[in-house]
Design goal:
By secondary structure, the chain is α/β, with parallel strands linked by helices. The protein has 14 helices and 16 strands. The protein is globular, with a radius of gyration of 20 Å.
């Protein structure tokens, strides 16, 4: 019997929220190994299994709406408005059924990574709720009010529910500083294998310069491969660019789910090139390696994330057009020449702080080791 059972409602907007939630769950289980999680999300089950192995029950559930995307780079505001109109306010019957479900399995609290439905369920179930965020949906939607004023009532709805969380936790880089119970350094998953082990599995020499091109775990086929072959002495790891693992000259092309843990690939690399997103920033930050970053220009989160990168990480901005067509490779010598950050200059992983905070509030003894 698990000594602690927690429900976790996780936004399916990208994989960044799921990666942060997985990091928190991983650290809670490090401290309290018998913890069991009930995960409510549409992020696929394997994503959490890659981090946790077992010790969780997966519930495929639309726990959050987020922003509807036309592509990884472009939002669909009309479709978002339609989805919000269909799902908000939260139906009372839905909240009641979910609250009965989490009570029946013995959950003692509900954690939410910007999925406010979890806060409503916790309130209905009489359980404490923990909101974990670096932005909330009311703040994101405010950035689109000039284009879509009909977002206004939904902004108020989100703001109300987020304010009703029992505990509010913010994770740096934070988009809007608000009063909270805890603010932590970046939260990221940790690698499971060493740099040497992963390079050996991929047949990459230990000293060979290696670049990871990533969309943060989102399935995306990167097409600008020819430009990368201009640098034959550099190895490029590109998840999402093949149906099965393939080596093509200096390119290692991997399927979306390759059998390699994404943080392992990142920590085995010397440079990361990719779209700005919370989990990619946090993992690259803790790896201490340079980041060539492209932003989603119209997404409100992008500006504060980019500012954090500029101030705290060896980095170089890359225009989205250059990222997509491969002309960013002209910056490769400069990126490879950037110094790695020393571990002493980095903050600790905020996941452990969150884990200790949650367990302390729940009165759970720390039976494991940190």
């Amino acid at each position: 019997m698990a000594s602690l059972r927690l429900a976790y409602f996780i936004s399916s907007h990208g994989f960044g929220h799921a990666a942060r939630a997985a990091a928190v769950m991983e650290r809670i289980k490090t401290i309290c190994p018998e913890t069991h999680f009930d995960i409510f999300t549409h992020v696929p089950q394997w994503f959490f299994a890659d981090t946790l192995g077992n010790g969780f029950t997966y519930h495929a559930y639309a726990s959050d709406i987020g922003i509807v995307q036309r592509s990884p780079w472009e939002e669909d505001l009309s479709a978002t408005l339609t989805m919000l109109s269909q799902r908000l306010p939260f139906p009372i019957d839905e909240v009641t059924l979910l609250s009965e479900q989490v009570r029946d399995v013995g959950c003692q609290a509900i954690l939410c990574d910007i999925a406010p439905l979890g806060i409503a369920v916790a309130e209905s179930a009489g359980l404490p709720s923990f909101l974990i965020e670096n932005f909330t949906w009311d703040w994101i939607l405010e950035g689109y009010l000039d284009q879509e004023p009909r977002f206004a009532p939904f902004i108020e709805h989100f703001r109300t529910w987020f304010s009703r969380a029992s505990y509010h936790l913010q994770t740096i880089p934070v988009c809007e500083l608000r009063p909270c119970h805890l603010r932590t350094p970046p939260v990221s998953r940790s690698p499971k294998h060493s740099r040497a082990e992963i390079r050996a599995l991929l047949n990459i020499p230990e000293q060979a310069p290696t670049v990871l091109i990533t969309m943060g775990g989102i399935e995306h086929h990167y097409h600008a491969l020819t430009a990368l072959k201009q640098y034959p002495k550099v190895t490029f790891i590109i998840p999402g660019s093949a149906t099965h693992p393939t080596q093509e000259d200096n390119l290692i092309l991997l399927p979306h789910r390759s059998g390699f843990y994404h943080p392992d690939l990142l920590f085995a690399s010397d440079v990361v090139i990719g779209k700005v997103g919370y989990s990619t920033i946090a993992e690259t930050y803790h790896a201490g390696i340079p980041f060539g970053y492209a932003i989603r220009e119209h997404f409100r989160e992008s500006a504060p994330l980019a500012e954090f990168i500029r101030q705290n990480m060896p980095s170089l901005p890359i225009p989205t057009s250059e990222f997509l067509d491969g002309t960013w490779v002209k910056h490769l010598p400069e990126l490879l020449a950037l110094p790695r950050r020393k571990p002493s200059s980095m903050s600790p992983n905020g996941a452990m702080q969150i884990a200790f905070f949650i367990l302390e509030q729940l009165g759970v003894n720390h039976v494991g080791t940190a």
